[in-house]
Write a structure and sequence with these properties.
This protein is α/β, with parallel strands linked by helices. The chain is 42% helix and 19% strand.
Length: 381
């Protein structure tokens, strides 16, 4: 009898200690816990850091204005190092902390892995920048950015319609859903706009030598290289092309955003690089200038990139949908999700990245834009 009494006492004490160290917001009924997942360290850290910082600007504004339906936002970001397994672990950590809605994940492959968990939990997921089609395959998932197919299609349209080049070489990452998806759709759309794909070369893993891909493009007479890849390998490609005295023009998608922020990168190599992006920090509209000023003040003068703007719009989209649905913090995760599935289709967001509406498929409807890097800045084309 004494053994059982002692066991019960120990168990009760342990439970009491757990309640003391558990995040207070897990049990609060006046706080919305919004989670974020993305690479805060590693080769894609520029993306995740931008998302975290952009989301925090929005959260601070919303909380200062009274919150969502009278409740404050508790935003928590976890690092996934652009790794699928780590991303799932981050999701479970946030779920244990009381997450009710997920802004994430930031990159495509981790988002696909996390989506499977979110579907099981019926957790509402809004990715700011996960572009793979599969990243929002569940009816609980939406995105702020364009999908890979849209980026590939719109890039071909833009290059052809603006007569930027006719002979195109492609260098893409063959084991990355983001890169493969854009490449496939760009390749399919290119002939419709007078573009000839003269070379299309893949690389795998953490390749650092792109001589084979560049020589293939150069020997085929490519006057433009399309780069549906992330900024780190792109920086190496720019350097190696210059070293071999090959000077094509370059066009990429949102993965190139962050190129100018690479430590010790000679930004003159990026002069003239073009990319699709719905946001440029030197735009003159009031919303952009207000956001850029707040972002720079909070981040030691750092200039925001598209991913920060996507996250800012994402938080405000969640706010608008919650208000449309009348969501309250005491609702279950599943009930919140069911409400937001409907309300996301009701709202129109006048955001940093454009005027956005959403359909039942979770895809955003907005106009594409492009910028060119000029004197170390993104300039609207």
């Amino acid at each position: 009898m004494k053994k059982w009494t002692r066991l019960i006492s120990v168990t009760a004490a342990a439970a009491m200690m757990a309640s003391l160290v558990a995040p207070a917001s897990v049990f609060a009924d006046d706080v919305f816990v919004i989670g974020g997942i993305g690479p805060l360290t590693g080769g894609a850290a520029a993306y995740g850091t931008a998302v975290e910082n952009g989301a925090k600007v929005a959260v601070e504004e919303i909380n200062a204005a009274g919150g969502i339906n009278g409740a404050q936002i508790d935003f928590r970001m976890e690092d996934d190092v652009h790794n699928q397994e780590t991303s799932v672990n981050a999701y479970n950590t946030l779920k244990d902390q009381g997450m009710q809605v997920l802004l994430g994940t930031v990159t495509s492959a981790p988002c696909i892995a996390v989506l499977a968990e979110a579907i099981n939990d019926n957790m509402f997921l809004l990715t700011p920048s996960g572009t793979a089609v599969e990243a929002i395959a569940g009816d609980n998932a939406f995105r702020v950015c364009f999908s890979d197919p849209n980026q590939g299609t719109k890039s071909a349209e833009y290059i052809g319609d603006h007569q930027l080049a006719t002979k195109i070489g492609i260098i893409y990452k063959g084991d990355d859903p983001y890169s493969v998806g854009i490449t496939e759709n760009f390749t399919a759309e290119a002939p419709n706009h007078g573009l000839e794909i003269v070379s299309s070369e893949a690389f795998l893993g953490d390749s650092t030598d792109f001589g084979t891909q560049l020589n293939a493009a150069k020997n085929a007479g490519a006057e433009m290289i399309f780069l549906p890849i992330y900024y780190e390998p792109a920086s190496l490609i720019l350097k190696q092309a210059a070293d071999m005295d090959y000077h094509p023009s370059y066009f990429g998608c949102d993965g190139l955003d962050g190129l100018l922020a690479i430590e010790n990168f000679d930004t003159s190599l990026a002069e003239g690089v073009m990319l699709l992006t719905p946001f440029t920090p030197n735009a003159e509209d009031e919303l952009t200038q207000k956001f850029v000023a707040a972002y720079k003040e909070a981040n030691d003068g750092l200039v925001p990139i598209q991913f920060a703007a996507d996250a800012y719009d994402g938080i405000y989209a969640i706010k608008a949908a919650m208000e449309d649905a009348g969501v309250t913090p005491d609702m279950s995760v599943s009930d919140i999700c069911e409400a937001l599935k409907v309300s996301m289709q009701n709202i129109t967001l006048e955001g940093l990245t454009g005027t956005i509406t959403w359909g039942a498929d979770g895809e955003p409807n907005k106009e594409p834009k492009a910028v060119v890097i000029t004197d170390g800045e993104y300039v609207p084309m």
